[in-house]
Design brief:
heterodimer; A: alpha+beta; 2 domains; five-stranded mixed β-sheet; 10 strands; B: mainly alpha; Cytochrome C Oxidase, Chain A; 17 helices; about 0% strand; globular; disordered N terminus
């Protein structure tokens, strides 16, 4: 039987095993990429979108965008949107505010993670400015209004009439990015 | 001194071959494929009873609503351990044990290609499971997040013992990878001259494909638990949203391993059944080529359906549809297999010895499990069925009456060959019928519990589910007691006083190299590689 010797075949298979171990780690960026393309799990709204200068406002359609907030693990924060919802034409830009207050009694770094439903609308809701792009450092008792500047891409499927933008606020202590420890970008102190 | 005499005594006995060493050293240092196969099988048998007792404890707790026996925390540990032990400690080692015993004997090889590696791959297992089971005796809970160990249950909220779990998974993974490596090299390089790929016994084919599945996905599982370890101790955040990770990513990586894993658990079993049904139908296997291709197609499709475990995690519609259709497509090659088994039975002169009974039981009930699988594959239906007892019923039909029944069938089929003693047929029949009754009484009502809305992994339930849960518990005990009949047969065959000595071809309808050697199989077989002439090849298939 022609073919590889036991030793060579074993080494080839071992190389395959090592590759597959590496592949499991390769799945991490791969997953991010796919999610960003598809807008899954808020991956597409965690960084600033670029605005097409030729974007037309489609006044024939109106989409209602709801806002909702969740505190992960019930951290002692006030965190809510100042409007429950807004109406928006595709292509139009809107500014809305979220309010946050640190009631934990200590300084804390938090990170808001966005999520959009329905899933098929996710990649059409785009933000040019958001407090969720970076971590936010809050002094004890500090309060802030945090703006979100967003628009809905006019390419959005016709059947979508409502979108929900949800934020979950996570305690990011232990995961502070050193340079941004005192990062306070994208908010107005109250 | 005595050892030398014994060894030389066996010299005379076994035409110039060394017999096994005496005492514990034989088992610790053995490189003999039959010894290692035996070790795997006994390990698996012990784990079957350990995992079985846990299942019974779970069923006792579910006998009535409210607390019966244990608090919810302990209940969670029992379901987790039961799942891990049955999958990694029973089915996988049992199949590896059968592979070790049978593959060299089926392809006419003297031993496995890498015998020392073989020893290591077995001996990793007892240590891995000691590590895992030791968590039950530690302060604080044992792993309690389900066998799927989803993040963040196992990362942020995992008990301290999770680290023991992680390292035991690493060791089991290493063991499986080494075993798979060995099997691939053996099948590639050690087939008897003249044995072409399309003359391999179907069990060998099944294991070859399974070995490739193992080599591809066990490293992914290792990567998955390594990421967990890093998240738990080294401040990474693969799965932690607070640090920029994503818990859904865990599910993708886990099920990228997890779905091929279910085919790892069943494909060798398909092979066993494909050897047993022709023997007791006294007909060659119907559609051998289709059986082989179907195995390969199932394995390939197994890689691209993992997301059907996560339809409700917010995937885009296109992805859900793709995974739904790909999943349903698996019914085609599986259907071919079931059709061919039935085709083999058709007009055969069938007898119903215990291995055949288990094979037929498998055929009927695995198909049922396949149908509930098809129901779960449908996206809109899955939204309703997911995480309910319907899922529990489904995967127990394919794992108990699927994988476990194939293993039991295989053990009954080859036990006379291994030990040279015939098992007690009456006890075997009792074992089968009690198992079938127990299994159906346990798991059939779970379909309806699930459809009625009873969630899985919950130690307590709403009052209206009580009757069916009590039926399930009774069935579970029938099934548990049935396995004592199995234990009896094993003990009698392995350690009984009955004189050994059966014809080489134990079953007169059996074909293949393994039946050309005496029973019990001598310690060393096929030291002179057999040639496969074309006449023999014709006789074989």
């Amino acid at each position: 039987m022609a073919g590889m010797s036991d030793r060579k075949l074993t080494l080839v298979l071992l190389a395959g095993v090592i590759f597959m171990f590496g592949f499991s780690y390769m799945l991490v960026p791969l997953y991010r990429l796919v999610c960003k393309q598809q807008g899954i799990n808020g991956q597409s709204v965690r960084s600033a979108a670029t605005v097409d200068p030729h974007m037309q406002v489609d006044r024939s359609r109106t989409i209602r965008v709801y806002f909702t907030t969740v505190l992960h693990n019930d951290i002692a924060f006030q965190f809510r949107s100042l409007q429950r919802s807004v109406e928006i034409h595709p292509g139009e830009r809107k500014l809305i505010y979220f309010f946050a207050e640190n009631q934990t009694g200590k300084d804390l770094t938090v990170q808001a993670i966005p999520s959009i439903t329905p899933v098929d609308a996710a990649r059409y809701l785009k933000k040019t400015e958001c407090f969720c792009f970076t971590q936010q450092y809050f002094y004890q008792g500090e309060r802030a209004d945090m703006p979100v500047y967003f628009f809905v891409d006019p390419d959005i499927p016709k059947n979508i009439k409502e979108i929900t933008l949800a934020y979950t606020l996570f305690d990011a202590s232990g995961f502070e990015k050193k340079k941004e420890r005192y990062h306070r970008k994208g908010r107005i102190d109250v | 001194m005595t050892e030398t005499t014994i060894v030389s005594g066996q010299h005379a006995h076994h035409d110039d071959h060394h017999g096994p060493a005496k005492g514990i050293a034989r088992w610790l240092f053995t490189t003999n494929h039959k010894d290692i196969g035996t070790l795997y099988l006994f390990f698996s048998l012990i784990m079957l009873f350990v995992g079985g007792v846990m299942a019974l404890l779970v069923r006792v707790e579910l006998f009535e609503p409210g607390k019966v026996l244990m608090n919810p925390e302990y209940f969670n540990q029992m379901t987790t351990m039961h799942g891990l032990i049955m999958i990694f400690g029973v089915v996988m080692p049992a199949l590896a044990g059968l592979a070790n015993w049978m593959i060299p004997m089926m392809i006419g090889a003297a031993d496995m290609a890498l015998p020392r590696l073989n020893n290591w791959s077995f001996w990793l297992l007892p240590f891995a499971f000691t590590l895992l089971l030791s968590t039950l005796f530690m302060k604080g809970p044992a792993p309690d997040f389900g066998w799927t160990f989803y993040a963040p249950l196992s990362t942020t909220y995992g008990p301290a013992s999770t680290d023991f779990f992680i390292f035991s998974i690493h060791m089991m993974g290493a063991s499986s990878i080494l075993a798979a490596l060995n099997i691939v090299v053996t099948i590639f390089n050690m087939r008897a001259p003249g044995m072409t790929w399309m003359q391999l016994p179907v069990f060998v084919w099944g294991w070859l494909v399974t070995a490739f599945l193992l080599l591809a996905v066990m490293p992914v599982l290792a990567g998955c638990v390594t990421m967990m370890l890093m998240d738990r101790h080294f401040h990474t955040s693969f799965f932690n949203a607070a640090g920029g990770g994503d818990p859904i990513l865990f599910q993708h990586i886990f099920w990228f391993f997890g779905h091929p894993e279910v085919y790892i658990l069943i494909l060798p079993g398909f092979g066993i059944i494909s050897d047993i049904i022709p023997t007791f139908s006294r007909k060659p296997l119907f559609g051998y080529h289709f059986m082989v291709y179907a195995t390969i197609v199932i394995a390939f499709l197994g890689y691209i359906v993992w997301m059907h475990h996560m339809f409700t995690t917010g995937a885009p519609l296109v992805a859900q549809l793709f995974f739904m259709y790909a999943t349903m497509l698996i019914a085609v090659p599986t259907g071919i297999k079931v059709f061919n088994w039935v085709g083999t039975l058709f007009k055969g002169s069938i007898t119903f010895e215990t291995p055949m009974l288990f094979a037929l039981g498998f055929l009927v009930m695995f198909t049922l499990g396949g149908f509930s699988g098809l129901m779960l594959a449908l996206v809109p239906a899955d939204y309703q069925y997911r995480d309910s007892y319907f899922v529990v019923a489904h995967f127990h039909y394919v794992l108990v009456s699927g994988s476990l029944f194939t293993i039991l069938a295989g053990v009954y089929y080859w036990l006379p060959k291994w030990t040279g003693r015939m098992y007690n047929e009456t006890i075997g029949q009792w074992h089968f019928w009690l198992s079938v009754i127990g299994m159906n009484v346990t798991f059939m009502p779970m379909h309806f519990l699930g459809l009625a809305g009873m969630p899985r992994r919950i130690p307590d339930y709403a009052l209206q589910f009580t009757d069916f849960n009590q039926i399930c518990t009774v069935g579970a005990f029938i099934f548990g007691i049935a396995q004592l009949f199995f234990l009896y047969n094993i003990i009698v065959c392995c350690f009984g006083k009955k004189p050994r000595g059966l014809p080489g071809r134990v079953w007169e309808g059996a074909r293949g190299f393994e039946w050309t050697i005496p029973s019990p199989a001598p310690y060393h077989t096929f030291e002179v590689t057999p040639e496969l002439t074309s006449a023999e090849a014709r006789a074989k298939f």
